Amino acid sequence: MSQSAIERAADVLRDHPRVLVCVGSGLSVESGVPTFRGADGMFRDPEIATLTHVSTFDSDRERMMRWYQERRDKLHTIDPNPGHHSLVQLTQTGEYTIATQNVDHLLEAASDEAGFRPSIYHLHGSLLEVRCHDCGHTFEDLTLDLGELPTCERCGGPLRPGVVWFGESLPVDALHRSNRAARNADVCIVVGTSGLVHPAAALPDIARRHGATLIEINPNETALSDICHILIRDKAGTALPALLKEVRRS
Ligand code: APR
Fold it and tell me: Which domains does the chain have, with CATH numbers?
């Protein structure tokens, strides 16, 4: 890890309080949650691309719901890592908005441990949520086994996880608030994302076009690296604690 990159990033953050943080699956890797792409990514299994597309809800619903229930069950076994905790603490040093592509609850869990909740917008929904595919009734219930194909108590429609599948639109409110944060940000931190999936991947460039300084935290080069001003080539669980320590250093 280049200490100078951490110091430069901390200098920018200390002087510019309005920050958008764009989060991807790399932030949860050190909690035991696999990424989608890359050597150990879920997509090395070609079936996963099918299981994450809306059309499969009609063509192979039971297989799809069993896979999502397996992911929901795993939520009970994972905890926030130092990257989640440090990012939550970092939000207390300025006006932060977090736009996450992740469907886990680890940032909320870290927030609960810290005793405050920053603005977190789930652009791709949440595995904790269950939604009726017909009427849209949405609620949180991790005890519900989606593999049993439960139906909506309001309309009888099929229940599904409250996540965004390929072929579906992102939640309007989360996307609108994240876009507004990108337009107003002085700094945009991009952590743990390959920057390949739009419209989430467009947020850093929107921030940059409105004058923001971009900081990338990722051990690897990504589709966004070329537009980032400061590259911290390290894991989130190492870089974010170091960044927090440096920002707090007066
Ligand atoms: N710390 C930080 N970044 C990491 C770490 C780590 N410990 N380990 C891996 N990474 C990086 C990888 O280098 C990669 O750039 O995390 C990124 C993960 O990229 P993807 O697997 O493409 O995940 P993400 O960008 O979140 O995918 C976006 O694609 O399939 C859809 O809906 C899904 O939300 C997901 C979206």
Answer: 3-33+79-124+170-248 (3.40.50.1220), 42-76+131-163 (3.30.1600.10)
Q: Residue 89: what residue type?
A: Q
24 lines ligand 1 (CB under 6 A): yes
From the alpha carbon of 23, which atom of ligand 1 is closest? 26
Which of 97, 87, 96, 95 is CA-nearest to residue 121? 97
CA 113 / ligand 1 centre spacing (Å): 25
Backbone angles phi, psi at 202, to 5 degrees: -85, -15
Strand ranges for the chain from DSSP E = 18-23, 95-100, 119-122, 125-132, 138-140, 159-163, 187-191, 213-217, 230-232
Smallest CA-to-CA distance from 19 within 126, 178, 241 is with 178
What single-letter DSSP state applies at residue 217? E
CB 101 within 8 A of CB 124: yes
pLDDT digits over 8-45, tens only?
Answer: 999 999 999 999 999 999 999 999 999 999 889 999 99
pTM exceeds cut of 0.90: yes
Atom number of ligand 1 nearest to Cα 35: 21
CA dist 72 and 207 (Å) reads 33
Cα of 29 to ligand 1 centre, how many Å?
8
Q: Does 100 sit in the ligand 1 pocket, CB within 6 Å?
A: no
Phi–psi pair at 33, nearest 5 degrees: -100, 120
Angstrom CA distances, 41 to 89, 117, 166, stand at 28, 30, 17
Q: Alpha carbon of 220 to those of 23, 73, 193, 212: distances in Å? A: 15, 30, 10, 22
